[in-house]
C-alpha cells in the first residue's frame, strides 16, 4: 500500500476519533450540567419570549430523578445542590402531565400565597408593583404553533400593535422582575390563600393572565404545587432567540436577546 494512502487513512481515522470523542464529551456535558430548552409559549413574557433558546443549569439545585441521568439518582428528593430562591426562573417536570414547564418561583415551603385584584400577596403582605409602561408586540403568529398573542387592547387586527400594561414586581429578597396584565378581573386574579407544603414550591408565570401555574390545582388539570424532585434546573441566560417558526429564518432573529441574562 502506498505511503500516501496509509497517511490518508490514518488522517481519516484520527478525524473520526476526534469527532467521536467530541460528541461523547458534548453528550456528557449536556447530560450532567446543562439542558437546552426552547420557549414554546408566552406564559413568561416579557422575561422570556416564544423562540428564546436557553441552557438550563442542572446543577443549580442538584440532581433529582427527573434531571439525573444515572440509576443512582434518588427516587425522591435531590442529590447535592441548594434550594431554589424566591424569584428564580426554573424548568421543571409537570407532576401530572409529564412535560417540561418553565415558571418563576413565587412561594417557598411554608409560605402563603394569594392573588387579590390581580395583585400578589405573600405571607399576608402585598408584593409591591410599580407601573413600567406598556409591552408592545405585533399581533402575528408566533413560534411553531403559530399562536396569536392576547392583548389588553383587543380587538386588535392581525399585524396591529398588541399592548399589555407592564409592572415591576419586587419579591422579598429577590431581584425585581417584570409582569404583564392582559385582562382586569381574570379568573385567577382573585384566589384563595394557598399554603405551600414542605418540600414543594409555588410557581407563576410573569404573563399573569396567560399562564397555567400553581394557582390552578392538579384536580382541575392545572399545575398545583411542584415537589422538589420535579425540578430540573435554573434558567440563567438566553443564548439565542428567533421570532419565526424556525431558527433557520435568520431574518427573524432577535439579536438584542443573544446572551441576555434571565432575571
What does the model show?
The strands form four sheets. Strands 1, 2, 5, 6, 14, 15, 16 and 17 form an eight-stranded antiparallel β-sheet that branches. A four-stranded antiparallel β-sheet has the order 9-8-7-13, with no helix packed on it. A three-stranded antiparallel β-sheet has the order 10-11-12, with no helix packed on it. It is mainly β and 263 residues long. It contains one helix and 17 strands. It has one helix spanning 3-32, and strands spanning 34-38, 52-57, 63-64, 78-79, 89-93, 100-107, 112-116, 119-122, 125-126, 129-138, 161-169, 177-180, 194-195, 200-204, 226-227, 231-241, 260-261.
Number of strands: 17
CATH class: Mainly Beta
| Gyration radius, rounded | 22 Å
The helix content is 10-25%
User: How many domains is the backbone divided into?
Assistant: 1
Low-pLDDT residue spans: 15-31
| N-to-C order of helices and strands | HEEEEEEEEEEEEEEEEE
- The name of the CATH architecture is Ribbon
Q: Give the structural class.
A: mainly beta
CATH topology: Umud Fragment, subunit A
Specify the number of helices.
1
Tell me the distance between the termini.
62 Å
The major pleated sheet works out as: 8 strands, antiparallel
CATH superfamily: Umud Fragment, subunit A
What's the pLDDT, averaged over the residues? 85
Q: Approximately what portion of the residues adopt beta-strand conformation?
A: 25-35%
Principal-axes geometry comes out as: globular
Question: Keyphrases for this structure?
Answer:
single chain, 263 residues, eight-stranded antiparallel beta sheet, Umud Fragment, subunit A, four-stranded antiparallel beta sheet, 1 helix, mainly beta
